[in-house]
Amino acid sequence: MATYLPTLKQLQYLVALKDHGHFGRAAEASFVTQSTLSAGLRELETLIDVVLVERTRRVVRFTPLGDRIADKARRVLREAEELGDMARAAGRPLSGDMRMSVIPTIAPFMLPRILPRIRESYPDLKLFLREEPTGAACEGLHNGRADCVLLALPYACGEVAHQTLFEDRLFLAFPTGEMPSALPAIAAADIDETRLLLLEDGHCLKDHALAACNRPEIRAEATMLGTSLHTIVQMVDNGLGITILPEMALKAGLLDNTTITAKPLDEANAVRRIALVWRRGSPREKDFQLLAQVLAEAQ
User: Fold this and answer.
1) CB count, 10 Å around CB of 245?
2) In angstroms, what CA-CA distances link 69 with 14, 65, 199?
3) CATH numeric code, 8-87
4) Which of 282, 295, 298 minimizes the C-alpha distance to 102?
5) Which GO cellular component does the record give, naming just one (predicted)?
6) Left (φ > 0), alpha (ψ -120 to 50) or beta: where does 165 sit?
7) Mean pLDDT in the chain?
């Protein structure tokens, strides 16, 4: 048995360098100086008698063994965090630190309404939020950067547990007068695919919108934009196209002060399911279930 073992701090430095690929940024993320982080990594390499990182002036390159050890270190750190989670789960519900990622097509429309209620009901909960696309959020969940994710289903997020909060209907938004506004809803067959503006890959709303329309030619002809719903709405308001928006964005006032009309999509699957997901088997599962209940009731 080894006399000395790596410390959690050394493993944290290694994972930070792997995530950021730069000593300065890794040190900043670890709240230490660059020299402290570098010294900690050298101590780790000396301790286990292997080179983990090739250092040059311009590039930080992990060795093949360094890559494997960094991945293992990430799992060890996650297990260590779960020790604390187990203790918290045995105490008061929804207390302590919790890191939640939220996708961009939910965060600005749902969080302002629900966060005050969470603070009021659970003042001992410190909810740290991160807004990022669905793929990055799910990756962060599995590597331990996040404890839970607020996202829209369906989406393949890996081996997770989840609780559906509510259904969020999809609407077609268009410049007033461009389509018949007297109709109660718009059929996907009536959408001009050459005018459709959608978020680019990485945003699950795009996939939900395409699935709702169920027209293969739309994927080929629609314009995919790497931007936010707010920006797309401005483009629609200036007559540059039409788009598909979630109902929660409309209720939050996304179309206020515009000349845009929004009508429900008249399709059976023109809906996304808003859900809270977490790692399967997490010791804080009861906390996540309670949080999901609070989020659902806040609608």
Assistant:
1) 24
2) 9, 6, 37
3) 1.10.10.10
4) 295
5) protein-DNA complex
6) alpha
7) 88
Highest-confidence segment of 80-84, 101-105, 180-184: 101-105
Contact 233, 225 (CB under 8 A): no
pLDDT higher than threshold 50 for residue 1: no
Q: Which pLDDT belongs to residue 86?
A: 63
Q: Is the pLDDT of residue 4 over 50?
A: yes
Instruction: Answer for the pair 168, 152: CB distance below 8 angstroms, yes or no.
Output: yes
Q: Is 136 exposed, middle or buried (0-12, 13-18, 19+ CB in 10 A)?
A: middle
Q: Are 263 and 184 in contact (CB under 8 A)?
A: yes
Closest CA to 76 of 44, 109, 116, 43: 44
Q: If you search the block for the tokens 């008249």, which residue do you land on?
A: 266
pLDDT for 95: 83
Query: Token pair of 85, please?
Result: 């989670």
The two structure tokens encoding residue 285 = 């599962």
Q: Which pairing describes strands 148-153 and 271-279: parallel, antiparallel, or unpaired? A: antiparallel
- Residue 66: name the closest of 35, 42, 83, 37 by CA: 42
CA of 280: how far to CAs of 1, 88, 128, 283, in Å? Answer: 32, 18, 21, 9
Residue 128's pLDDT band (cuts 50, 70, 90)? very high
Domain boundaries, the chain: 8-87, 95-299
What is the third-level CATH fold of 95-299? D-Maltodextrin-Binding Protein; domain 2 (3.40.190)
Q: In this predicted model, what pLDDT tens digit does every residue of 201-242 receive, in sequence order?
A: 767 888 888 888 877 777 777 777 767 899 999 999 999 999
Between CA 43 and CA 7 the distance in angstroms is: 10
Whether residue 57 is predicted with pLDDT greater than 80 in this model: the reply is no
